[in-house]
Write a structure and sequence with these properties.
By secondary structure, the protein is an alpha/beta fold. The protein has helices spanning about 5-20, 25-40, 50-75, 85-90, 95-130, 140, 145-175, 180-220, 250-260, 265-270, 290-305, 325-335, 350-360, 360-380, 395-400, 405-415, 425-435, 485, 495-500, 515-525, 545-550, 560-580; strands at about 280, 310-315, 340-345, 385-395, 415-420, 455, 475. The radius of gyration is 30 Å and the shape is elongated.
């Protein structure tokens, strides 16, 4: 038999904990529902720690909703319910043990229910991981999500209670010390706390966040990988002959001009004589203004005789100035190093933060660079011009889209475009998706029978439809599982076509659209967009080689040469991951 004294002590401890925490039990039930929504299938698999953070924030929001609903019930609905003497007596005379039992059952239901839904979620995670060729998670390991979520809920609720304490303190000071009538003290206190919170958040915290992020990433910008060595070849920015000094290029710029295949490496892979590729870059510290940075790049192109090469690629980078090495090397191997690539840096922040703080910087940088290079290129005789190509990935694609008004403008200014993982807010991309040919899916649309622009998730998609594809060509590479492509505020209240139509090959068939929930889930996926194997999410790997082949096929291109270049790209990518 249980020890009555021990049971009494345990009950006393539970009551003391309840008094300290003061949970709202209806809020706990709603939090459990929100928790279940947060572990429903999404685009990408998640680690238990990351899922715990997402679920914790979601459950905390649910807890708040539950508290508000219960308050509204007590305030407006319950007083209107008929109160019989028997019902009143039953409520007033209900034993404390019964009340405690009900509360314990609610807590137990929440804990056990969360564990059950997590076990189901672990299966959904394994389905996604198998689709993407990842090691499947274990159910027992994934159950740790609940602990992280509980800690996150406690933190968020504690933060809210701190704000509530500040509000009540302000009301007490105004009402008691300053003797303001309560009808005046309450709205005044609410206004004071609200203004203080907004100013603290927007005027201080947000500014401090972005200033701190900018400062932190500017420090990162000054870091140079031990594997990045100042180039000595005049064909590179940052070399002794360069107009853009090595120490002004930023971390990503220094890597871009140092990690370049040599002519010997290219010749070894292709079996043909090669040239040393030209890479031109200007960082934020290379010139005072965005216009000066673009003009500096043009002067660097002139200095390196880039306009005498067979191909000239204009790149709009991501926020930090990053250029995908695989994409750059692919075009250099394809054309035997007879290439030039030009890029600039417009921010210290990664793409996500650049998008939130000032995405117009990317558009401005893309427009300035493309137009400046085109203006110089157009001065050359038509038969002496290199192929002028444009490339951008993620926020970089949005930036370089900003250089053009539409498809006709693209075809009149450049010889081809490769855009990879375009954000859903891209202006040109969105218009093409909306006006796609009837019957074609949103994840891989066909526009105007593929006459000018094509969309692809793998090499075979570039052949659809099997009809004429005019030059200049435009290619969008986009995976069905890439949250950067499919995230949109419209997910809040509108089911997207990509969830109403047949799913992509790496998207869970269990994923469903729910108002607000799907928006939140895909928003969380953004943080893991590149933490999946190549060929999924925002990892495009050597698919860019197929993209370049479609946009600007070189002479004497063979399947054997393609295989050798693809192997070299994979080898160099592994080396870069290990040494950068």
């Amino acid at each position: 038999m249980a020890d009555p004294a021990l049971s009494a002590r345990l009950l006393a401890a539970l009551r003391a904990a309840e008094t300290a925490v003061r949970p709202n039990y209806f809020g706990l039930l709603v939090a459990a529902i929100f928790f279940a929504w947060s572990v429903s299938p999404s685009l990408l698999p998640r680690s238990w720690i990351f899922q715990g953070l997402v679920s914790g924030v979601t459950a905390a929001i649910g807890y708040g909703v539950g508290c508000v609903l219960e308050w509204a019930f007590r305030r407006w609905i319950r007083p209107r319910l008929p109160e019989t003497p028997a019902r009143i007596a039953a409520l007033e005379n209900q034993p404390q043990a019964v009340r405690d039992a009900i509360k314990a059952v609610i807590v137990l239901v929440c804990i056990v229910g969360a564990a059950i839904i997590l076990a189901r979620s672990a299966r959904w995670q394994r389905d996604l991981e198998v689709l993407m060729g990842m090691d499947p998670t274990t159910t027992s390991g994934y159950l740790r999500t609940e602990l992280v979520a509980a800690a996150t809920v406690a933190f968020v609720v504690g933060l809210f209670r701190l704000v509530r304490w500040a509000l009540r303190s302000a009301i007490r000071i105004l009402n008691i010390r300053w003797r303001l009538p309560r009808v005046v003290a309450v709205p005044t206190a609410v206004a004071i706390v609200a203004v203080a919170a907004v100013l603290l958040f927007q005027g201080v915290l947000v500014k401090l966040f972005f200033d701190a992020a900018n400062s932190a990433f500017s420090l990162r910008n000054g870091h140079t990988s031990a594997a990045a060595q100042q180039p000595q070849l005049p064909e590179r920015s940052g070399s002794p002959e360069s107009l853009a000094p090595w120490d002004t290029l930023g971390s990503e710029g220094r890597w871009f001009v140092s990690f370049v295949p040599t002519k010997d490496r290219i010749a070894q892979v292709t079996g043909k004589p090669a040239l040393d590729p030209i890479r031109v870059y200007a960082g934020l510290q290379s010139a005072p203004t965005p216009e000066d940075i673009a003009n500096l790049v043009v002067r660097e192109l002139d200095r390196t005789k880039a306009f005498e090469r067979e191909v000239l690629v204009v790149v709009t980078t991501t926020g930090t100035g990053w250029v995908d090495s695989t994409t750059a090397e692919a075009i250099e191997f394809m054309y035997g190093g007879n290439t030039a690539i030009a890029a600039t840096q417009y921010s210290y922040l990664p793409s996500v933060l650049s998008f939130l703080s000032d995405k117009n910087k990317a558009t401005e940088a893309g427009r300035l660079l493309v137009h400046a290079v085109h203006a110089r290129w157009a001065q050359l005789p038509p038969d002496a011009r290199p192929k002028l190509l444009v490339y951008g990935e993620s926020l970089g694609s949005q930036g370089s889209e900003g250089a053009f008004t539409g498809l006709d403008d693209i075809r009149s200014l450049v010889d081809g475009v490769l855009w990879v993982g375009p954000p859903n807010s891209n202006r040109i991309w969105s218009s093409l998706e909306i006006r796609r040919d009837p019957g074609t899916p949103e994840i891989l649309p066909i526009y105007a029978d593929g006459l000018i622009v094509r969309f692809a998730a793998d090499a075979a998609d570039l052949e659809r439809p099997p009809s004429t594809w005019l030059q200049p060509r435009i290619v969008y590479l986009q995976h069905a599982s890439d949250p950067i492509v499919w995230w949109s505020p419209d997910l809040l209240f509108e089911q997207p076509d990509w969830l109403a139509e047949p799913r992509g090959p790496d998207v869970s068939k269990s994923m469903r659209w729910w108002p607000i929930v799907t928006f939140w889930q895909v928003s969380a996926d953004l943080a893991h967009a590149q933490k999946v194997p190549s060929g999924h999410g925002h990892r495009y790997g050597t698919l860019v080689l197929d993209g370049w082949e479609a946009v600007a096929p070189p002479p004497e291109w063979t399947p054997d040469l393609e295989d050798r270049i693809r192997q070299a790209l994979n080898e160099d990518s592994e080396w870069e991951i290990a040494h950068k």
